[in-house]
Amino acid sequence: MTAKRWRTAVSGYDTEHIQISGYRVRDLMRNLDFGGTLFVLYQQRVPSPQEARLLNAILVSVIDHGIVVPSVVARMVAASGVPLQACAAAGILTIGDTHGGAGEQVARKLCEEVSAARQAGRELAEHARELVTQARSRKQRIEGYGHPLHPNGDERVDVLVEMARELELLGPHLELALAIEDELAKQASRRLPLNIDGVMAATLMDLGFDWRLARVFVFVPRAAGISAHAVEEVRREPGWRVAARPDEIEYDGPSIRDFPHSAAEP
Amino acid sequence: MTAKRWRTAVSGYDTEHIQISGYRVRDLMRNLDFGGTLFVLYQQRVPSPQEARLLNAILVSVIDHGIVVPSVVARMVAASGVPLQACAAAGILTIGDTHGGAGEQVARKLCEEVSAARQAGRELAEHARELVTQARSRKQRIEGYGHPLHPNGDERVDVLVEMARELELLGPHLELALAIEDELAKQASRRLPLNIDGVMAATLMDLGFDWRLARVFVFVPRAAGISAHAVEEVRREPGWRVAARPDEIEYDGPSIRDFPHSAAEP
Amino acid sequence: MTAKRWRTAVSGYDTEHIQISGYRVRDLMRNLDFGGTLFVLYQQRVPSPQEARLLNAILVSVIDHGIVVPSVVARMVAASGVPLQACAAAGILTIGDTHGGAGEQVARKLCEEVSAARQAGRELAEHARELVTQARSRKQRIEGYGHPLHPNGDERVDVLVEMARELELLGPHLELALAIEDELAKQASRRLPLNIDGVMAATLMDLGFDWRLARVFVFVPRAAGISAHAVEEVRREPGWRVAARPDEIEYDGPSIRDFPHSAAEP
Amino acid sequence: MTAKRWRTAVSGYDTEHIQISGYRVRDLMRNLDFGGTLFVLYQQRVPSPQEARLLNAILVSVIDHGIVVPSVVARMVAASGVPLQACAAAGILTIGDTHGGAGEQVARKLCEEVSAARQAGRELAEHARELVTQARSRKQRIEGYGHPLHPNGDERVDVLVEMARELELLGPHLELALAIEDELAKQASRRLPLNIDGVMAATLMDLGFDWRLARVFVFVPRAAGISAHAVEEVRREPGWRVAARPDEIEYDGPSIRDFPHSAAEP
Hints:
4 copies of one chain form a homotetramer.
Chain A: E1 6-8, E2 11-13, E3 18-20, E4 23-24, H1 25-31, H2 34-43, H3 49-61, H4 69-78, H5 84-93, H6 100-120, H7 124-137, H8 155-166, H9 172-187, H10 196-206, H11 216-236, E5 249-251, H12 261-264
Helix pairs in contact in A: 2-3, 3-8, 3-10, 4-5, 4-11, 5-11, 6-9, 6-10, 7-9, 8-10, 9-10
C-alpha cells in the first residue's frame, strides 16, 4: 500500500486565490448568499435566485427548534466547560439515522418512486394511490408523514410548499409527496400530514441534490441553533447540569451483592 | 442539589408554532435568508438588508478552503466508514483556539482598544500608532495580521473591507484594524496585511456581535465545506487513508528493548 | 408523546454507594483490574482470572499503533488548540465500519457459522473447508485475514492465540477462525494470515461478548494511545499542522472561471 | 511554511513489530495488564506491580457512575441512530474543565504546593494549615473537596487512600491532600471530605504522572462505561429520547411578535 496523493474537485487555493468549483470565493461573496454558495458547493453550478431563495428557506426552517435532543446535548457539553465548537460537534452527532437520516431515506424513496412512475408511464397521483394502498395492505408506515411534536401539521411545511410553488420550483418529488399526503387522508381515517423531513427531502430532490446529502441541510444550519443554546447555557446556568431528576432515574439491574471473592481473587 | 428546570430565551415551540426570539420561523423563512436568521438567533433583532448581506459575505468567505486541516480530518474520518454528521463533527473540532479562537482574541482586543481610545478621547489612527509602537518595542506580535498561506494578502479580506464600506457598515472596529495595518506598514520593513481572522473579527464587532461568538461564524459555514470534502472522499477514494507517507514518519523514541521481566512480572 | 423515565441496569448510585451490575465499585477496585471490570460492565458477571487476563491482553494489543489514521486525526485536532478529551473524541470517531466495524462483522460471521456448523452436526474444520471453497468459487473475500501493514502476519495475533490456548480459553470461534486460516493457506497460492480484527473477534466471542460490542474493545484502549499522541503533538510540534504537503494536493475540478453574473445576480 | 515530517516517540511499527516506547507490544500483552500498559504509554517505563495495581484501581473507580451527564449525552446520541464510537465520542466531550479538568487543576495545585513546602523547608501538615487558613481568610474554595452527589464522603476515595497506603505508594501529594482535609475539618464547621477528583489527582501525582494528563484517566475508562449505557439505550429504549419533560421547559425570551416587514423586507 502506497500513500495516495490527495485529490479534490471541491475547492482549491494558491497564494492569490481561493476558489470553489472554479468560482473565486471573492465572486461568491459578492454575488451569492450562504444558501446560494452551498448550492455551488454541492452542485458545482450557480443557482438561479429562485433556487437560492428556496434553499435558504430550507436552511432557516431547521436552524433551531427550542430545547430538543440536539440542543440538550450541546447544553450539557457546554455546562461541562468545553469550547463552543465541541458543544456544536456533540450536538450535531445526534443528527443521525433517526433524525436527518430519516430525511435521507424519504429522499431516496421519492427519487426511486418518481423514476418508477416515469418508467411505468404512470401519473404521479396514480402512483401515489398505488403506494398508499400497498403500504396499508402490508401495514407499512410511509416515512415523511406525521410528527410527534406537531400532530396537526407543521407550518414550516406549509411555507416550504407555498414557496416552492411561488418560485416555480415545485417539481415531481414534491408533487408525489403531496399526492401521497392526499391519498393518506383519503384512505386513512385520520390526517397524517407531510412532515418537515418529508418536505425537505422532496424540495431538495426537486432542487437537484443527491439524496445522500439530505442530512447536511439539517446539521449545518442546526450547528448555528445549538451553538446559541450552548452560549446561553454557559451564560445563564452556572454549574453543571443534573442529567435527569434523581427521582426519574431507576436502576433496575441486579441488587447490590457481595463480591464473589472465591471466584475472582487473583 | 436539585434538578433544574430547563430555561431558554433562544427559541421555543408548541404544537402549532416554532419561534426564534419571538419571531415565527415561518416569517423568518419568508423574509430572511440564512445569514439574516443567524443574526436574529444571536442578536434577537431583525437585521437590516445591509447587515444581512455583510453577514452572508462573512459566512461565504470561510465556507471552504481546499485541503487544509479541517477538511483532512473530515476526510480521514469519512474514509473510516462513519456517517456524514460525525465527519463534520470531527472536522469542526479543529476550529479551536489556534484557528477560530484566534479570531476570538482579535475580536476581544479590538473591542477593548476601541473602548480605551474612546475613554482616552483619542483618534483611532493615533491609538493604532501607539499600539503598534508599543507592540514593536515589546517585540509582541499583533494578532490578526499575516497569513502563512496568503503572504501577499488575501482577496477575501479586500472584499469584506470593500463591502463593509459600500454597505455603510464600516465601524470603529474595522477602522481601528485598518489603521493598525497602515501603522504596521509604516513602522515595519515589510507589509503585514490584515488577515481573514482579523477582518472577520472587526466586521462582526461592527455588526454588534459578542466577541465570544467569533468562532461560530467559522465552524457553522465550514461544516458545509468539510461535508463536501467528506462526501467526495467516500465517492472518489475507496479504502482508508494512509495517514502519512511511511517515509515521512519517524519514530524517535527509545530503541526496541527487552521487557524487564524481573521488574514487572506479577 | 410523554417523557420517559430513565432506566438503567448498567450501574447506579446513591449518596453512599456506586455499583456496577450490583457489584460495589469499591469491591471492583480491590478485586479486579480494568479489563476485569470491563467484563463485569458488559457481561454482568465477575470473570475468572484467566478471562480477565485474556481480555487485558486484547485491550493492550490495540492500545496504540504509531502514526496511523486515529492518531493523525487526534494530533491534527490537538494542534488546533483543543482540549485533550476533544482530541480523543475526534480520534475515536475514526474507529468506524472500516476499522472496528470490520471486527464486528467478523465476529458476527463467526457466531453465525459456529451455530450453522453445530446445527449441521459438522466439524469446524470441515465447515471451514466448505466456507473457503465457497468463498473462492464466488470470488468473495473472507474478512479478518491479511493486513496491509503486516503482510507476513502480526505478532499480536500469535500472542493472542497462544494466550487463549495457555489460559484454556480457546473456544469454537477461534478454532473456526484458525481452521479457515489453514484452509486459505491450502487452497490459495499465498498465505493470508488471521489479522488482529479477526483474532479479536474470535477471542471476544469465545469470551462470551456480544458481537455488537466488538469495536468497544478497540476504541476504549485506543483512546489512551491517541491521547498520548495528542499530548506529544502539543509538546513537541508548535504551531498547527500543514495538512498535506502542498505538492501532494491536486485540485482537479473545473478551472477558474468568471462568475456568471447574468445568471445569478439578484 | 513547509510541511513537517511527522515525528513520534510514543510508538512505532514496521511490518514485523509494533512497539510502545521501545517495548514490543507482544511483551506488554504477556506481562502487563491494561493499566500497566497505560503507565508505559505515559511514563516510558514499566511500572512495578504495585504501581500497576493502584493505577488499575484509579481507572476502575471512574469507569461508570450511573445516569449522569456523560452517560445521558451518550444515550441521547445513541437514541439518534449513530454508531457506538460516536456515542462514546459525544460522551467523553463532557469530560471538560468542569469535571476532568477540575482534577487537572487540583493536580497542578498539589504539585506546586508540595514544591513550595519543600523549598520553604516546611512540614506538609504545617503547609496544609497555612493553605486552609489563607483560603478561608480570602473566602476561596479549595478544589478537590466535597461532592454534590456524595455529601458524606465517597467510598471510592477511602479505597484509593487505603490501597495507596497498603501498596506503599502514599507519597507527598496524597499526604498533603489528606492534611488539607484534616485542616478543613478542624477549621470549618462541617466536614468537607476529599473527593474523587482530589484523590485521583493526588495518587496520579504520587505515581509520577504529569498533571496535564489527569483527565485522560477519567475519559479513557469512562468511554467504557458510557458505551455500556449507549448499548443499553439502543436495546431497551426504542425511539428517540424526549430531551426533557415538556412541562420542564420554559421559554422565557421575547413573546411571539410580528415580523417587522418594514425593516427587513429586501
